[in-house]
User: Which sequence fits this backbone?
């Protein structure tokens, strides 16, 4: 499997993306720290971390008896340079802004809501 | 020191080259300028040597000293930000650069750390390194960089 295949495979799983989010929020965590607040078994987290490490999205450092996990964003930059930058146009940003605004409007005042008073705050 | 009392990041990239060539790419000012947005790095790369970085507009951005150097394997730089007062106020940080051959590539690991929690310096430099490393890999492997000028912060 090529580096790019490993990378996209690693990114394709919601559990692994959640682990990346946890490391982004707090870098350099042990396995036990990562297992807290996660709805995954310790074995599951271990397997996900191994795949993330194989894809070079997580770098591991040993400190004494502890093994710390760090998010490594360098492959994401490579994806960005390879797959996003060349397609990037101001138009994409305009579309994204429009989507955000419409979705925000839909949340705050849906024009077709027949029961506005029943809405939760 | 407890892990909670420091801020650090660890970035890794695998580059299809030899340790000797990668070491040269990391220490040759002409080469550095190509992947580091026209930044000029000055040092004579010996233990205890001074080290500094000057941006394309001529301003001093970072300064420091070579704490350890073991070509083509490992280098530790004492690193002080000179660019923003609030980052300089955080004091000295350490940048460790390690090279290890893996199959037909070299694993390049950059660790940047400072002995304080929630460091703004670490947050600031952590945004720059992925672009620099992606550029470096691209330049060595294909002869071209992806990002020529420093993106706006």
Assistant:
């Amino acid at each position: 499997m090529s580096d790019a295949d490993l990378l996209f495979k690693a990114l394709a799983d919601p559990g692994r993306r959640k682990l990346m989010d946890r490391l982004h929020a707090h870098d350099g965590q042990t396995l036990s720290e990562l297992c807290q607040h996660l709805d995954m078994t310790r074995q599951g987290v271990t397997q996900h971390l191994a795949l993330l490490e194989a894809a070079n999205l997580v770098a591991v450092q040993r400190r004494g008896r502890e093994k710390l996990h760090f998010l490594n964003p360098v492959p994401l930059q490579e994806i960005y340079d390879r797959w996003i930058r060349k397609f990037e146009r101001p138009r994409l940003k305009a579309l994204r802004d429009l989507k955000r605004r419409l979705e925000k409007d839909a949340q705050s005042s849906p024009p077709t809501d027949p029961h506005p008073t029943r809405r939760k705050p | 020191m407890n892990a909670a009392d420091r801020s650090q990041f660890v970035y890794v990239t695998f580059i299809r080259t030899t340790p000797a060539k990668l070491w040269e790419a990391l220490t040759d000012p002409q080469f550095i300028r190509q992947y580091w947005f026209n930044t000029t790095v000055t040092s004579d790369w010996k233990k205890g040597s001074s080290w500094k970085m000057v941006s394309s507009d001529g301003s001093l951005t970072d300064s420091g000293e070579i704490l350890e150097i073991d070509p083509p394997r490992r280098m530790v730089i004492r690193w002080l930000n000179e660019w923003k007062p609030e980052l300089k106020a955080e004091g000295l940080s350490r940048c460790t650069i390690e090279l290890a051959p893996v199959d037909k590539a070299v694993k390049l690991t950059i660790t940047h750390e400072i002995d304080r929690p929630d460091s703004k310096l670490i947050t600031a430099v952590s945004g720059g390194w992925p672009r620099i490393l992606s550029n470096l890999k691209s330049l060595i492997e294909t002869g071209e960089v992806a990002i020529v000028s420093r993106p706006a912060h």
